Amino acid sequence: MEIKKFVKNLAQAAGTSKKPSTQTTAPKPSRECINDFGADGRFMLCGDFVESKSHAGEVEILYVYAPDCTDNYIGYESGKPYFMISSGIDEVYCNVTDFLESGTVSNVLKFEKRSVGSSLFYAEMDYYGDRMAMYAFARDDAYGADGEKEPFGLCIVYGSDLVGTELEKHFLNVLKEAAETYRETVIAE
Q1: pTM assigned to the model
Q2: From CA 91, how far away is CA 109, in angstroms rounded?
Q3: Residue 57 lies in domain
């Protein structure tokens, strides 16, 4: 049975330029990461993800999946799985805003209203041909009206071909750990 699974994973990988859908080495230990984009956010993230930069204003922080990398920073490569914290991309902003107004979201593949750490909900959705899993949050908006919340999400984005694989399970566990450990305080100006 294990040989059959191995062959299936190889066949999936052969059809794409992406990595095979299994991880061949043990994940690197998690380490504390800091999001200092307007807030002092701290969370734990698996060492398989290496800091990068997206050059998109909607992305506060980006880590690319590179389990064999020994550098502290790498350039972003299209097509590689990644972890991000985002407040501005539509899939995050609109879903969190809808949830804050109605208690639900639409146009997602999976939705669970639950609190992991201080998150509001968990959702999975299609994202430009890939899959995105997200824990949604809302921070107090220091610049808005009293009681206004700024939506943001901790997200993992990976190829749809990885759905149902052990690597997807690894990514979802990485995301859950980040959400469970995410804590922030707004920086006073």
Answers
A1: 0.80
A2: 12
A3: 27-186
